[in-house]
Each structure stands twice: as structure tokens, then as C-alpha cells.
Amino acid sequence: MSLPTSVDFAENYDEKYAKTYGRFRIERITEVVDNFIGCGDYSQGIARIQCTNPECKAEFFRPFSCKGFYLCPSCSQKKTLLFSEYMHEQLLLSLPHRQFVWSFPTRTDWQKRKYRML
User: Fold this and answer.
1) Among residues 59, 73, 68, 65, which one has the least CA distance to residue 45?
2) InterPro entries under this entry (predicted)?
3) How many Å apart are CA 49 and CA 58, to the nearest integer?
4) Which residues, 6 or more positions from 76, have their beta carbon under 8 angstroms from its beta carbon?
5) Hey, CA dihedral for 15, 21, 27, 31, is it positive or negative?
6) Could you tell me which residues are beta bridge partners of residue 48?
């Protein structure tokens, strides 16, 4: 008996797994994988980056990225760093932040249901 391939999995997903796990978005997954394969490939397109300083005039070429958040490690890291920088610089106040979690023993569940004001 041979192991199932990804093509077999995609073709048989609806009848075997859809009821349990939900709809399989093969089109979106295929698109993300195709973009990941072309990420950083100079033949897929490039951007020319030049320094605006008239004395420097440095320039280089940068290939387009796939912008895949979970699949591509470099694009995922870039989005994570940009989001954390946004949180630090613009969203959060420059105050110490703390998080408190209150938990109660399960023995007190009946009291919480009976006395709602607690």
C-alpha cells in the first residue's frame, strides 16, 4: 500500500474530512505556496532602490516578496517586526504594562451561579 500524495488528499478531502474539519481552501493554499516558491526570485520582478542623497548615489535591486505571513519565514518575520514596532511607537503608551489573571477554584462554581453579584 502506497502513501497518499497531496493530490490524493486534495481530491478526496470533501468526502472524507469536510464534515469533521470544515471546508478545505485548496485554491488559497495553492496560491500561497506558488507565491512562496517565487519569493525573492529576480525573474519574477525587481525594484530598483536608489539613495536620494546627491553625494551618495548608491543603488541596488531588490526582488519582490511573496508577502506570505505563515509560510514564508522572511516575510513572516518582517510583518512581525513591523507590527511590534507599530505597537511600541504608536499604539502603546510609554507606561509599564501589566496583566493580571484572576482564577477561582472550581469548587466555587455553584456560588458564582447562585450569587451573581460576586
Assistant:
1) 65
2) Zn_Tnp
3) 8
4) 68, 69, 70
5) negative
6) 61
Tell me the pTM. 0.46
CB distance 52 to 58 below 8 Å: no
Q: How far is CA 111 from the centre of its chain?
A: 42
What sections of 38-100 are H helices per DSSP?
A: 73-86
Looking up cell 506570505 gives 68
Give residue limits of the domains in the chain: 6-86
Taking only the tens place, the pLDDT of each residue in 8-26 is 777 777 788 778 877 766 7
17-67 tens-digit pLDDT = 778 877 766 777 777 777 888 888 888 889 999 999 889 989 999 998 887
What is the pLDDT at residue 18? 78
